[in-house]
Amino acid sequence: MDIKKRVLSFWEAVIEQNDIKLQTYFESNAIINWHNTNESFTPEEYIITNCEYPSKWFGEVERIEIINDLAISVTKLWLSDKSISVHATSFIRFCGEKIVSLDEYWGDDGTAPQWRQDKKIGKSIK
């Protein structure tokens, strides 16, 4: 399976919170870093964190860029009750078919800060 398809399949397993399927994506010694919260996980810890989250996720991959064995993805995710909407930018390094490192940056979706609204600068992307 090519890297792009592998990334899309990985995100499908993340969104489905499918712990069995997620186990197949990682090398046993892979390192997962969430830089925004200064956390580093083993694959097992990452799967627990994702699959035991107290609500159901929905999501869609908006962009994937491939540079050799590195995939960069941007994924929009939201909770089923729509109380949270975020974008995750992920740097996924592969060795063959397996993820050896995953560095993610999570950002909350929302409106522009009031000071920029007051200045009437910028415009909506969509």
How would you explain this protein's 3D organization?
With 126 residues, the protein is of the alpha+beta class. It has one domain (3-119): Roll (Nuclear Transport Factor 2, Chain: A). It is 27% helix and 44% strand. It contains four helices and six strands; from the N terminus they run ααββαββββα. It has helices spanning 3-16, 19-23, 43-51, 114-119, and strands spanning 26-34, 39-41, 57-67, 70-79, 85-95, 98-108. The chain has a six-stranded mixed sheet with strand order 2-1-6-5-4-3. β3 (57-67) and β4 form a beta hairpin. The protein is globular and about 50 Å long. The mean pLDDT is 95. InterPro entries: NTF2-like_dom_sf. This is Nuclear transport factor 2 family protein.
**Which band does the percent of strand residues land in?**
35-45%
Count of helical regions: 4
- The count of domains is 1
Task: Evaluate the radius of gyration.
Answer: 16 Å
Strand order of the largest sheet: 2-1-6-5-4-3
How would you sum up the major sheet? Answer: 6 strands, mixed
Quaternary state, please? Answer: single chain
By secondary-structure content and strand pairing, the structural class works out as: alpha+beta
Low-pLDDT runs of 5+ residues are: none
User: In the CATH hierarchy, what is the architecture at level 2?
Assistant: Roll
Number of extended strands:
6
CATH topology: Nuclear Transport Factor 2, Chain: A
Broad CATH class: Alpha Beta
Helix share bin: 25-40%
